[in-house]
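Is this the right way to post structure tokens for a design question? Let me know if I should format differently. Anyway, here goes:
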């Protein structure tokens, strides 16, 4: 086994044993749950209330939910690692846009398979959440080494 693989395995193993990482994940999930509710409420309103196609409705609900999630993650989940609000916010937005693209891909596949649009969105959000957390933990709210 190569040295790099062994180092990576050691880092991952250490990260999994740190209580703080699990606490951050729990907080991230609580914030995500609030964003999930916001996202689905706005999505449903746009889809059913304003008869917007499901893809633009997903983008609109994403914009509202990502604002909610950034504010709460900055203030609560990753409070100890807060950086400059603009730079951190831009990194959060980049990670979130990648999560949105993954969400749209999953959403489109699920709708094409015949799943109800709201259930498809609810499922897509859940499936994309782990990647979103890892991106935000490792980049948006990373601890700066000096």
């Amino acid at each position: 086994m190569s040295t790099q693989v062994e180092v990576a395995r050691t880092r991952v193993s250490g990260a999994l044993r740190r209580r703080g990482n699990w606490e951050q994940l729990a907080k991230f999930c609580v914030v995500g749950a609030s964003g999930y509710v916001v996202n689905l409420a706005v999505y449903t309103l746009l889809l059913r209330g304003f008869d917007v196609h499901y893809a633009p409705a997903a983008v609109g609900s994403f914009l509202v939910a990502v604002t909610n999630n950034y504010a709460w993650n900055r203030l609560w989940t990753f409070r100890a690692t807060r950086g400059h609000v603009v730079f951190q916010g831009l990194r959060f937005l980049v990670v979130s846009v990648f999560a949105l693209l993954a969400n749209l891909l999953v959403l489109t596949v699920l709708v094409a398979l015949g799943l109800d649009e709201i259930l498809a969105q609810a499922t897509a959000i859940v499936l994309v959440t782990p990647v979103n957390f890892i991106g935000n933990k490792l980049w948006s709210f990373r601890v700066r080494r000096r």
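Format looks fine. Someone answered above. Worth noting: The chain has a mean pLDDT of 85. Residues 21-140 form one domain.
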